[in-house]
Structure to design on (247 residues):
């Protein structure tokens, strides 16, 4: 079973969760369309975009746990451990499947928002000089916020995988070990990130926002550190899965 087959297997396993969420988001946007007349724009924005984004990210993090839990519950873990494929590739297939469906769901949320809610303001936006002036800043905010969001979700999924695998190293008190490993991993991230970020102070800054939005210049070091931590957790999870876990 190659990486592609593993990826397709994982997609089939978690696809129903994201499909249900996508459908629920469309219904939620229709509800806001017909029941949200007179709501403040900020409230509508939070309920129509921020809440679905937080929900789908929580589902992606939960899916990282669900994938491994299903392997042990169905005893398919025996097959995975017997395959001539490295452990990190097995876990990478799970991670890529979750992130792919996360991106598709986010795309569905965005399309639903644009077609159901944003179309009401299409004339106002297209004819407004103010909107044309701030559009570059909005695109900058959207792009940078999106990759920061994806990077954060990726790290959290890897931490969930790490915590679950640590729980499989013991025969008793698995839940206690899982919780302890998860909190320990988060503690390490918060303690190590500032130190490593300081060593990367020479890295260029990121322009976040625009002239008309209180623009920020963000140090790129912390984000590079998060990326490196993602790679470290991916390798560590693969090592634990391949070498240490006994079924």
């Amino acid at each position: 079973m190659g990486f592609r087959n593993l990826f397709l297997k994982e997609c089939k396993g978690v696809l129903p969760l994201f499909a249900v969420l996508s459908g629920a988001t469309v219904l939620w946007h229709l509800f806001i369309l017909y029941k949200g007349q007179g709501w403040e724009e900020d409230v509508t924005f939070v309920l129509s975009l921020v809440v679905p984004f937080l929900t789908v990210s929580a589902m992606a993090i939960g899916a990282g746990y669900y994938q491994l839990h299903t392997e042990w519950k169905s005893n398919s873990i025996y097959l995975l451990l017997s395959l001539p494929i490295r452990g990190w590739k097995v876990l990478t297939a799970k991670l890529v499947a979750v992130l792919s469906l996360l991106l598709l769901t986010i795309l569905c949320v965005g399309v639903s928002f644009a077609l159901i809610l944003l179309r009401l303001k299409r004339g106002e936006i297209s004819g407004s000089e103010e909107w044309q002036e701030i559009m570059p800043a909005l695109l900058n905010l959207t792009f940078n916020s999106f990759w920061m969001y994806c990077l954060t979700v990726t790290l959290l999924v890897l931490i969930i995988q790490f915590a679950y695998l640590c729980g499989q190293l013991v025969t008793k008190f698995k839940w206690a070990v899982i919780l302890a490993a998860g909190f320990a991993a988060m503690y390490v991230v918060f303690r190590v990130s500032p130190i490593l970020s300081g060593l990367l102070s020479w890295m260029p800054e990121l322009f976040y926002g625009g002239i008309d939005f209180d623009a920020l210049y963000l140090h790129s070091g912390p984000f590079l550190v998060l990326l490196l931590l993602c790679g470290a957790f991916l390798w560590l999870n693969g090592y634990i899965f391949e070498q240490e876990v006994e079924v």
DSSP finds eight helices and two strands in the chain. The longest strand covers residues 213-219. The mean pLDDT is 82. The beta strands are 205-210, 213-219.
